[in-house]
Amino acid sequence: NAESAMKQALLSGERHFYFDPATQARMAEKLALENDLRQAVEAQQFVLYFQPRVDLARGRIVGAEALIRWHHPEKGLVPPAQFIPLAEETGLILPIGDWVIRTVCQQVAQWQRTERHVVPISLNLSAAQFKGGRVLDTLHQAIAQHAVKAKLIELELTESLLMHDPQAAISILSAFRSMGVRLSLDDFGTGYSSLAYLSRFPFDFLKIDRAFVAGVPDNVEDGAIAKVIIALAKQLNLRTVAEGVETEEQLSFLHHLGCDEMQGYLFSKPVPVEQFEQMLREHVRLSLPTYPAGKHSP
Ligand code: C2E
Ligand code: MG
Ligand code: MG
Ligand code: MG
Description:
The structure is a single chain. The protein is α/β, with parallel strands linked by helices and 298 residues long. The protein contains twelve helices and nine strands. It has helices at residues 2-11, 21-43, 84-90, 93-114, 134-146, 159-163, 166-179, 195-198, 210-215, 220-235, 248-257, 273-282, and strands at 46-55, 60-72, 76-78, 121-124, 153-158, 182-188, 205-208, 239-243, 261-263. Strands 1-2-4-5-6-7-8-9 form an eight-stranded mixed barrel, surrounded by five helices. A hairpin with a 3-residue loop joins strand 2 and strand 3 (76-78). It is globular. The site of ligand C2E has 24 residues, from strand 2, strand 4 and strand 6. Ligand C2E binds at residues 51, 67-68, 79-81, 84, 100, 123-126, 156, 186-187, 210, 243-246, 263-265, 270.
């Protein structure tokens, strides 16, 4: 790419190189964003939104995922897809990741004191947080400092993060396990997993990626994949969570396959903390439609 081409040119002592204006503009924009992101870390311009997770059998909120947003002074609320990759590239994901862990622990600890119904909150981890066991230290400290119940914290990890060094991953996951936190395998089906390793990783939940959920019930291949994933999870004693459920047809189809929990716009988008607290307090029993078997069943 242009960036490495430029580095190459600089290293080889070449003084005259040329990028077309579009590439120059892109590079300048990226640099500006990197600067802004450094300041954002200093000024703590981040905020967590919460997206509820619903248990179909109980018809209740049984958890939520904490999802980061960046309150940019000029651009407003920036979604993670627009800055997490850059944060990972620049190493800024380390302080950001620490902030997420501390903030979730602090928030859950507060709910432990003030709310009647507290549910486990999950957070997403990036690969770099694993190096040198940093994430273990941060998590251990945050849990101790805020006296949060470990079973109310859940970590979401992706296949690619684990498969980079499966042996190291197994030992870190075991350390998480002995702390008492819950573990879920995020975006399942999109990375390269080895089925051999899958059974050796001590997960509690398997989250089916939105890519497959989006296709059901109409896309036969996606339906088949969802079915196999749910069956596999049952064999391995993992609970399944479908991500990105948007329609009642998807809900019905996945429900019939035996999917345990769901998360998606059908129930709620990720919402600011006050709004999520309201949902917790209402402790509503969601009226999940009961479907006549057959209509959308696989
Ligand atoms: P993810 O962990 O797979 O999170 C689920 C994403 O799907 C969220 O996007 C959520 O808003 C979106 N989603 C949920 N239900 C629906 C639905 O019904 N329809 C559609 N179209 N989308 C739905 P979001 O919040 O933009 O986050 C995107 C990704 O950014 C996350 O994917 C995760 O990989 C990453 N991310 C978010 N927060 C953090 C964080 O604190 N740390 C790290 N390392 N990554 C994060
Ligand atoms: Mg996630
Ligand atoms: Mg996911
Ligand atoms: Mg994802």
